[in-house]
Design brief:
single chain, mainly alpha, two-stranded antiparallel ribbon
């Protein structure tokens, strides 16, 4: 790997704030959204990876945060509160109820909070709530690659999705629900007549 300071275009004596500022500018420059349907998309992806690796190397050396696209997947954790970092760790460990408890108790309503809360909603099967919250996170931090990719993934699978409230059939359309209830009532009535 090239010298990480050279990759970010900063001097070795640069403060962590200067490193972060240079890093953010390069993330904006090579962000995948700028290269959609562009022949330079693969090159931009490689450059972004190199920028992320350089930033991670400097952070490890100076004790800073994590990059967008770091190996831990914690894109937004570099600037998140300790509570939100703990909630993310719990989610990564599969403890969504513990993570949800932390999120409900914290007053930090940052983009990371909306992203984590939306991710929990998605895991519970609450697609509409998940989309709304993750869209809020994206609007608060439009350059956050993790938030955008997650929203795009949810939206692309949304057409095949049927909302299930913890495994119980649930549909937000009241007309469909009314029809389903009437159909079940008619079936039950027919069965009662048979006995």
């Amino acid at each position: 790997m090239r010298d990480p300071y050279e990759v970010l275009g900063v001097d070795r004596s640069a403060s962590m704030e200067e490193v972060k500022a240079a890093y953010k500018e390069l993330v904006k420059k090579y962000h995948p959204d700028k290269y959609v349907d562009n022949p330079l998309a693969d090159l931009a992806k490689e450059k972004l990876q190199e920028v992320n690796e350089a930033y991670d190397a400097i952070c490890k050396n100076q004790g800073g945060g994590q990059s967008y696209g770091s190996s831990s997947g914690a894109y937004g954790s570099a600037y998140a509160s300790a509570d939100l970092q703990q909630a993310r760790q719990m989610m990564n460990a599969g403890n969504i109820y513990g993570a949800e408890t932390i999120l409900n108790q914290t007053s930090d309503r940052s983009a990371e909070w909306y992203f984590l809360s939306g991710s929990i909603s998605y895991r519970k099967g609450w697609l509409d709530d998940a989309i709304t919250k993750i869209q809020t996170a994206v609007s608060m931090e439009p350059s956050n690659l993790e938030y955008r990719q997650t929203l795009n993934r949810i939206m692309s699978t949304g057409g095949m999705y049927q909302n299930t409230s913890f495994g119980k059939g649930y549909n937000n359309n009241s007309n469909d629900m009314c029809c389903q209830l009437c159909g079940m009532y008619m079936c039950a009535d027919c069965l009662c007549d048979c006995f």
